[in-house]
Amino acid sequence: MFKKEHLEAMRRILESVCRDFDAELVEFNGEHDHVHLLVSYPPKVALSTLVASLKGVSSRLLRQEFGDFHPWLKRRGVLWSPSYFAASCGGAPLDILRQYIEQQQAPH
Predict the structure, then answer these.
(1) What is the tally of structural domains in the chain?
(2) What SS3 class is residue 100?
(3) FRET pair for 62, CA 20 to 30 Å: which of 4, 70, 74, 99?
(4) Within a domain: residue 81?
(5) Which Gene3D superfamilies match (predicted)?
(6) How many whole angstroms separate alpha carbon 100 and alpha carbon 75?
């Protein structure tokens, strides 16, 4: 179950991974069991490679950072499911996309 501190660390980690791919994490929001990302990435980058890196690096670094304090992170066999949903939004106004992602957070 992701808490506020996990999501804050995750944002930092995902921004770093995006920079490594010459991509930009435009918007991020998360809930207790999943996250929503708006990423702008260059056409030379394979989406599957970017997603695999985002998942792999975030899983490893979150476990390192929080595993001692939140044992459920270490106990889980995998942090992320192998699936993901991606949609192209070329031409859509970024403000509308940001608003959509911001509204995905469930009230706690």
Answers:
(1) 1
(2) helix
(3) 99
(4) yes
(5) Transposase IS200-like
(6) 33
In a domain, 108, yes or no: no
pLDDT in tens, 56-99: 999 999 888 887 666 666 666 678 888 998 988 777 777 777 78
- Between CA 14 and CA 9 the distance in angstroms is 9
> Does the pTM exceed 0.90?
no
Dump pLDDT digits (tens) for 3-50: 888 899 999 999 999 999 999 999 999 887 889 999 999 999 999 999
Residue 107 lies in a domain: no
Tell me if 54 sits within 8 A of 19, measured CB to CB.
no
